Amino acid sequence: MTILDRIITEKRVEVAQRRMQVSEQALAAYPLFNRAVNSAIAAIRATNSTGVIAEFKRKSPSKGLINGTADVAATTSGYVRAGAACLSVLTDEPFFGGTPADLQAARAANPLTPILRKDFVIDAYQLLEAKAWGADLVLLIAACLSADEVKQLSRFAHELGLEVLLEVHDAEELDRTLCDTVDLVGVNNRNLKTFETSVETSMELIRQIPDSFVRVTESGLHDAQTMHRLRMAGYEAFLIGEAFMKTTAPELALATLVDQLSKQNSTITN
Ligand SMILES: O=P(O)(O)OC[C@@H](O)[C@@H](O)c1c[nH]c2ccccc12
């Protein structure tokens, strides 16, 4: 059984339990449920956007504990000050140490920034939760969904006004699941079976993703030179967690990277 299989098996139990505790009607009555969402597409494509989607992640199955002390409101608002175009907040507790309260705190601290609910979405109920807790954008992972599920979940997300990031790791997943009801396509550089990351995964897949989608490169990113190379290849956004979270001042790590990125850009164009 792969780690992804284990996560999904537990997730089904978790979602069933939560559905019994909080009805769909109750979620729809949350104060944030009817708000206007912040568009991640618009934020990423804005002039002067860094394209960085900065992630709040305490731990992961591949790295174990990354940061056990960071405060979610302080860290995410620091990310925004340092130039993050969007935020990503893990809400999976057993494997990533995230909570719904993390997402809600990030929302309250950053009213104008698009926020991704980072979790393993397998059920429409989780999209209602995402909206109620304050997310603007949801992740659908091709490796754990059928083409039909991607279509149905992304349609429902759109009905709720949420944008959709479809995550793929190889050409098979891309061919099988890409549809016009997703907005962003993320290539995960991390192989979820071996946990190894290679940016060549992103370099290889870019040609097969139409540029009508916002193309995102995910995981294992930490240096401006590599990011510049990925940007030149067509990536508009970079999903980065560990490189920031493993430091004592995640927002400073992002500010430094943004500074190096701007130097990369000017070195090449001059
Ligand atoms: O911490 P990293 O290597 O910068 O990676 C961030 C993000 O891409 C990673 O957390 C991630 C990508 N896809 C996921 C799916 C579920 C949980 C986590 C992830």
Automatic annotation (TrEMBL):
Keywords: Amino-acid biosynthesis, Aromatic amino acid biosynthesis, Decarboxylase, Lyase, Tryptophan biosynthesis. One of its GO terms (biological process) is L-tryptophan biosynthetic process. Belongs to the TrpC family. This is Indole-3-glycerol phosphate synthase. It catalyses: 1-(2-carboxyphenylamino)-1-deoxy-D-ribulose 5-phosphate + H(+) = (1S,2R)-1-C-(indol-3-yl)glycerol 3-phosphate + CO2 + H2O. It holds the Pfam family IGPS. Residues 4-255 form the Indole-3-glycerol phosphate synthase domain. It is an enzyme of class 4 (lyase).
